[in-house]
Amino acid sequence: MPDAMAGVASALQAVKKSLPEGVTLVAVSKFHPADAVRQAYEAGQRHFGESRAQELRDKAAALPADIVWHFIGHLQTNKVRPVVAVASVIQSIDSLRLLDAVGAEARRIGRTVDVLLQVHVARELTKTGFLPEEMADAAVRALATEGVRLTGVMGMASNTDDASIVKSDFARIAACFNELKQVIMAGRPEFAVLSMGMSGDAPLAIEAGSTMVRIGTAIFGERNY
Ligand SMILES: *Cc1c(COP(=O)(O)O)cnc(C)c1O
DSSP letters along 102-118, please? Predict the structure, then answer.
């Protein structure tokens, strides 16, 4: 695990070097201490991803205010408040109920939060998200929801070493994004984020059109749950 100062900074540089221009890196810091985030921050990283409400709130309070926080985990509606308070982007909108709750909380505190719709294409039933055929309705609902701004789609590929499955998952996620972009979100330049790709599969995601990768392990090392 790269826990020394140089460890995080050099791992971060190596990851950045591997990304083509135009692909945004979200450094996924979940389960790693605020210190590790600070090391990446001092090496120039600004976008960070967290997957638990409490952890996000604690880190946001302890770390520089210009960090752009992305919430990437399954969010229960009763945990919306601390997340809407600090997240710039909620990438994991996986139900209409959650979308409504995020919009209501954002309106309550007088802000607009960027959201991505999470699409479920992976084989694991444990992963959440809208089915591809539910995405159009979800986008329409997001457009009608004050307090949220729909900026794209997030997805995960199946957890497998079979590259052909991973590729086809990413192609399906990209197809969902492109379909929304051409129809419901046509003429809305803010709808530009296709968030897919993690430490193990980022190259395949980028090949399939990803504009944002979410990378934890390759920067911070293994997580201790
Ligand atoms: C944890 C997590 C990641 C990062 O995974 P790594 O394999 O550590 O890069 C990316 N996306 C989501 C949604 C995650 O929960």
Answer: HHHHHHHHT--EEEEEE
Using most ligand atoms within 8 A of CB, pick from 1, 26, 48, 72 the residue to mutate for ligand 1: 72
Per-residue pLDDT reduced to its tens digit, 142-194: 999 999 999 999 999 999 999 999 999 999 999 999 999 999 999 999 999 99
Q: Which is nearest to 2 in space by CA: 36, 44, 31, 45?
A: 36
As given in the structure block, the two tokens for residue 205 are: 């995601």
In 50-194, alpha helices (H):
53-62, 80-86, 96-109, 135-143, 163-182
pLDDT single digits (tens) 93-135? 999 999 999 999 999 999 999 999 999 998 887 779 999 999 9
pTM above 0.90, yes or no: yes
Bridge partners, residue 49, by sequence: 28, 70
Cα-only R_g, the chain: 17
Please state, in angstroms and rounded to a whole number, the distance separating the CA atoms of residues 177 and 171: 10
Contacts for 221 with CB less than 8 Å, ≥ 6 apart: 1, 2, 3, 7, 11, 32
Give Cβ neighbours of residue 144 (< 8 Å, ≥ 6 apart). none
Is the CB of residue 198 below 6 angstroms from any atom belonging to ligand 1? Answer: yes
- Residue 51, ligand 1, Cβ within 6 A: yes
